[in-house]
Amino acid sequence: MNSLKNIGYALLIIAVLIWFAAVLFGMIQVFPFGLLGLIIFLGFGLLFIKVLAERLINAEDDYYDKNVEK
């Protein structure tokens, strides 16, 4: 069952990367107006990386995730 889950995640990641590449290519095609979209994409990407990094290094979140009953 885990292998099917991993295959599903891999396919999802591939689809998202293709979608991002298509959007990026489309924004480059409409150069002067596409810069706004590229700036927004960059902002959301940096925020996502910041939130993900904070979650990964936060020991308190890990403790509650592992030890508190839901």
Number of strands: 0
pLDDT averaged residue by residue: 86
The low-confidence runs, each spanning 5 or more residues with pLDDT under 50, are: none
Radius of gyration: 18 Å
Strand content range:
under 5%
What is the CA-CA span between the terminal residues? Answer: 24 Å
Question: How many domains, in number, for the residues?
Answer: 1
| Proportion in helices | over 70%
Helix count equals 3
Structural class based on helices, strands and sheet pairing: mainly alpha
Label the overall shape. Answer: flat
Order of helices and strands: HHH
User: Main beta sheet, described?
Assistant: none
Plain-language structure description:
- The chain has 70 residues and is mostly helical.
- The chain has one domain (2-67).
- Helix content is 91%, strand content 0%.
- It contains three helices and no strands.
- The protein has helices at 2-29, 31-57, 59-67.
- The longest helix has 28 residues, at 2-29.
- The protein starts with a helix and ends with a helix.
Short recap of the structure:
The protein is an all-alpha fold and 70 residues long. Helices cover 91% and strands 0% of the residues. It has one domain (2-67).
Features:
70 residues, mainly alpha, 0% strand
Please describe the topology of this protein.
Layout: H1 2-29, H2 31-57, H3 59-67
